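Continuing the series of single-chain predictions for the mutant panel. This is the parent chain; the variants come on the following pages.
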Amino acid sequence: MASIFTSPRTPAYLALICTTALWGSIGVVSRALMETIPPLVMAAARWGVAFAVLLPLVWPERVKIVQAIRRDWKRFLFLSVVGGAPQSALIFTGLAQSTAINLGLLNSTIPVLIILISWGWRGRRPRRSESIGLATSLVGVLLILAHGDLRALLQLQFNHGDLLMLGGMVLWAIYTLGLPHRPQSLSLFAFVFVMALMGELLTLPFAALQWAGAGGVHLGTREMLGLLYIGALATLVSTALFSYGVERVGAVRAGILIHLMPVFSSIFATLFIGERLLVYHAAGFVLVAGGAVLGCLKREPVLSSRTPTRI
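Parent structure:
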């Protein structure tokens, strides 16, 4: 790992570390707001804030944005579903039935999922070390899903929220693998803007139904500040930083640093919302992280040889 911080790609790695810290805070802040804001409403608000912040920044690119959507709308739509508001809606729906600590821990499955999906998507068979890593991480995932009681696996007594969040991790792994192939005609912020727009169009109808079903949602100062943080910093800034990092060091190496997220999320959840870090949390994280280290440290072609992405 020392070579990571002495390489010419240090800015990309620092960007990815900042990303994991911001992502680690999302579950904590959103979990604290869920007493007031339903999950689908929160997902739509999260990306709505990002959309509003980006609008004046990308306005000079409005003609290019329209042209890019007409030319590559299918690719934009795909990335918006697996990495935008619909993916957030799945995560928040699961989080409402689980904990911020579990969300952080399950994010550790992403590097392993990247290898597994790459195998099926690109026909790249895992090496022996990667297979061992996948098996080790799978045990860790099952331990987390079973809340430390492996007997629950025999009775299929999973927490539905954990399973939904795991599904969200699968979508994000797919997004990570597809991100290097995003349309390059737009700046990074313009690309995120299109993702926010399309994701909102897909999510808003369901969020409106949930809003109506809840009899409306009261948004006080606490809720507004929380949504502003989630949308502007933890979503917009982190998405830009993550895209920057992935395009320069590759999906697998970017995925390795995602293992810092449980550290940040566990610290934040323990300090700010009183969640407890239990033994099975630590054991599951060690297994998942250890498996990912075994499976993800293989060198892969770096994507920074492309024309640098415009911010």
